Sequence to fold (107 residues):
Amino acid sequence: MQITVRFTPTAIAAIGERAAAERLTIAGFIGDAALAAARSTDPLARAERDPRRPLAEALDRMAGELNAAVATVRDSGDGPACEAALAVLPDLAERTYTVLDAVLEAA
Fold:
């Protein structure tokens, strides 16, 4: 059976490089990849299905909190706002370590 599949030039270049690295023709590589995907429980490995996603989102939120604290320290000079921003850093660091440990355990 013969099937025709269309790819962009960029996709063909990437597929061709990987096929060459695996010592396969492009058609052979595509066939192997399609068969592996068909047999997989999550063939597209969608990010929203990744059990580590909530951990990555938590790290992203904490990075935003850290950026806000640093901006407050930078912009406020010495004073109550600076002290308040610095006061959140130990808790933020502890939460970051907790999430990073969870990410490492999930990996």
About this structure: The radius of gyration is 23 Å.
